[in-house]
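Ticket #4471: structure output looks truncated?

Reporter: J.K.
Steps to reproduce: submitted the chain below (303 residues) through the standard prediction queue, then opened the result file.
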Amino acid sequence: MPHIPVLLEEVIKILDPSRGEFFIDATAGRGGHTEKILERIGENGKILAIDWDEDNTSFLKKKFVDYPNVLVEHANYTDTPEILRQKKLPRADGLLLDLGFSSNQLAESGRGFSFLKDEPLLMTYDQNQTPVKDLIRKMSETELAEALRDFGEEKFAKQIARAVRGAKKPIETTGELARIVKNAVPKNYERGHRRGGASRLNPATRTFQALRIYANSELGNLEKLLNNLTGILKSGGRAAIISFHSLEDRIVKNYFKAMEKEAKLKILTKKPVGPTFLEVKNNPRSRSAKLRAAVFVQTKVRN
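Returned output as attached by the reporter:
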């Protein structure tokens, strides 16, 4: 399944890449956004493409093998300041952070991101991280319930945590976890009013979201990057961040507001930018995407 970059036109319009500029795609995935930015900055510009998933970085290196001005790095996006120092790169004209994951990670990775398949319960972007199947064995029922509530906003967190910890054998696959969750929640869980009475939300959705966020320290990583933005972007540099759930969006919104009060940036999106009806129709996974952007007007001088 080809990966379709989310909010592509909106991102390019807001970042407004120009010839010769330096951009960072800190979650490059399969390079859809990277490719479009490259068209705008030309051969005299430069792009630093970062991804935590080794499969993605291998793909990107092949995709951009003929473009010496595209530097691909296998790293967590929180390592961006260190990469700039090591590679002796300047602060950037623009930064893109797309907090979704690639279609290939759902369809091809075999790492348990989707509850629609029966795969090993890993859910980690980097293969050196502790997989979810091991994490849930170590977590107490209380710790697990807190994670489901805090990172998944799951109202049946206690019931699910009790069922997971009470499983007769260690949970090894996504299918096993999804079945346990389904049996732990009410039969009418999140039932919507669509034609035919179709369920609005699979009972496993929030649990899988919470465990993925927990395993990859996603919210902590986002906060770390935001706190380092002034060392990544030059004065006048633009940051565009695409989030996919309310927890991420709230962090970005609050950070931008606080920085604007300190006169360190100007918010470019008073309300988050979402996908058009046509984009959602062509790419249903884009429906929850929210884009927020800001331009920096004051930055610290890096040593």
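Triage note (M.O.): checked the attachment and the full token line is present. The chain has two domains: 8-104+219-296, 108-216.
Status: closed, working as intended.
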